[in-house]
Automatic annotation (TrEMBL):
Coiled-coil blocks: none
Keywords for this protein: Hydrolase
Name under which the protein is recorded: Carbon-nitrogen hydrolase
Domain of life the protein comes from: Bacteria
InterPro entries (UniProt xref): C-N_Hydrolase, C-N_Hydrolase_sf, Nit1/2_C-N_Hydrolase
CDD domains: nit (cd07572)
GO MF terms, alphabetically ordered: hydrolase activity
Length: 274
């Protein structure tokens, strides 16, 4: 499976973000990607007050454009995330379209990003956003793929659940920042890949030092062995790689971690499983 990860800039103008996406798809089409992945909030500045202004319903203008592009280019399009409005609530939502433009997955960010790092990054998504409540895995001809959004990936339980549901790769549209990026981005992606023996793809927007939230960038792809296949820095651009999801099975056979789990002892004192 050839996966392309686009680390694009986020403009204030939704149309400009759409135009930019089309230019990238045109640019990479000769490399024949199977799956193209975008970053978190790829068409909306990452600021809580902007989310309601950019939000659209499922099936809205942006959704239609994404579905159309997936079909036009014959690709799976894991379209980063966008602000979604449904019944008056706003979600941080990731859609995936198949090669015919049909929506095959939808993940609403389940863990909202509320942090206050002393002397560093502050953010409170829960001021505006409602959390989703699902673990998301979808099927392709290459194998099953899990999907979550940025802060979701900090919770190993969710990644493990996707893997228990068959995921051989996990896609994470994300936007770490200049505080938590250098501290945790690489170790988190490599750690999840090693624990779950699966590919992980983290795709960020490009770094814009003029933005109110400065993204770390560092779009990366990690193998089931924990090797960083490629990692960008903050620049605009893309990476593209051929991966064989069967490699996850091979690593799981050679180093049988998932089958050696002792779920009988993974309980807290009151008996609750985690
Ligand atoms: O977990 C982090 O450090 C960053 C998370 C984030 O930026 C997000 O969830 O959007």
């Amino acid at each position: 499976m050839k996966i392309a990860q686009i680390q694009s800039r986020v403009y204030n103008d939704k149309k400009k973000n759409a135009e930019q996406l089309k230019l990238y798809l045109e640019k990479i089409k000769s490399e024949r990607p199977d799956l193209v992945m975008l970053g978190e909030m790829f068409n909306c500045p990452y600021e809580t007050k902007q989310f309601p202004l950019y939000a659209e319903e499922e099936g809205g203008e942006t959704w239609k454009m994404l579905s159309h592009l997936a079909k036009e280019y014959g690709i799976y399009l894991a379209a980063g995330s966008v602000p979604e409005i449904a019944e008056g609530k706003i979600y941080n939502t990731a859609y995936v379209f198949d090669r015919n433009g049909k929506q095959i997955a939808k993940h609403r960010k389940a863990h909202l990003f509320d942090i206050q790092v002393e002397g560093g990054q502050h953010f409170k998504e829960s001021e505006i956003l409602t959390a989703g409540d699902k673990c998301t895995v979808f099927s392709t001809e290459f194998g099953k793929i899990g999907l979550c959004i940025c802060f979701d990936f900090r919770f190993p339980e969710l990644a493990r659940m996707m893997v228990l549901r068959g995921a051989k790769m996990i896609l994470v549209p994300a936007a770490f920042n200049m505080t938590t990026g250098p501290a945790h981005w690489d170790v988190m992606f490599r750690g999840r890949a090693v624990d779950n023996q699966c590919f992980v793809a983290g795709t960020s927007s490009a770094r814009d030092t003029g933005a109110s939230y400065v993204a770390w960038g560092h779009t990366l792809l990690v193998s089931p062995w924990g090797d960083v296949i490629e990692e960008m820095e903050g620049e605009e651009g893309y990476i593209i790689h051929d991966v064989d999801l069967k490699e996850a099975d091979s690593i799981r056979r050679q180093l049988p971690l998932l089958s050696a789990r002792r779920t009988d002892i993974y309980q807290s004192e009151n008996g609750a499983e985690f």
